Model the fold of this input.
Amino acid sequence: MDFSKYSNIAPYRGKDVDDAIKRVLGHKEELGAFVAMLVGDGDKEAIGKYLSIIMDNIGRVKSYTDFQKMITAGIFVPTIIGHTMKGFSDSGYDSIDPGKGYLFLSNHRDIILDCALLDYTLLNHNKPLVEMAFGDNLMINQFVEDLFRLNGGIIVRRALSMKEKYLSSIELSSYFVEGITEENLSIWLAQRSGRAKDGIDETQPSIIKMLYLSQRGKGVSFSELINKMNILPVSISYEYDPNDINKGREEILKEQQNGEYEKKKYEDLISMTKGMKDQKGRVHLAVGTPISGDFSTPEEVAREVDRQIHLNYKLWDTNLFAYDYMEKTDRFAKELSDFDGEAFLSRFSHLTPAVRDFVLNSYANPVRSRLKEEEV
Done:
């Protein structure tokens, strides 16, 4: 595989890693601000401690794997888990063969934490790490882009014309296919563009379609390509979504403005910060089984990804309560005997009815998805 073809979108390798490390080291204030997002602005002692550890280690980074072990999975993610979660668990990692590359197709709740937690668990299970696809809307400056690409980030170009977007998707999909089938790389990709703000996890078939279109001149059949890609569905489940209210307000505002919503300049950065530093309760990450078989259409593949994500999703009391409350039923009353429903509802008491119902439905929808799968 010729990585130089993809140098404008791929994670840093070789000399690019060295150059990026030098640039990052020249922005100690920005690095300190990033650490503050994790531990809280007021804890100056903790900020200083973690920043010192990072500065001592980052100069030894020579690859993405080094960056994960020494910085992200070594410092950032454990700090987030310790400060903002009551528990973190995972399942399904026995299905991963360390000698193969995989396309991890994941539901998407948090801008960066979903894939960061996956890498953290892969490292703990002695499995190869994943590269991760991110929208370029997050790359607000060179410092942020350096951190992302040092951390295995693959850049997805967003603000393009229709023709440019198609060509960019072909380039991106070619990188995915070549990386996985020729280099045994593993890659994390959200099952849809953007986070599922309503809690409905559905794969966009166009993602699967573009994989094939990038290879259709090479004589490979659709089903053959799908089997070569080793697609692994991933379900990540947060007991509490730190951005639940923000997502609800955004979606209701979008409805009121006929589907139009223009994000403010630093809105994604604010969501990213909130997702990292605010409380999440318990979190579970489940890896499914590689998708294989005879497939004729992208829709068939997307449907199997959805099926596994829905069935592997960890339903917390927040989900079950929201379902019973919105459906006006007591279906899960026995499971909820120790759950404080009034305290949960009080989180949303200040919201307009439309936003409140949207947020509660975002917690209830994973239950609806599971029940539909169980009926099939």
Remarks:
- Residues 24 and 167 are 31 Å apart (CA to CA).
- The first strand starts at residue 85 and ends at 91.
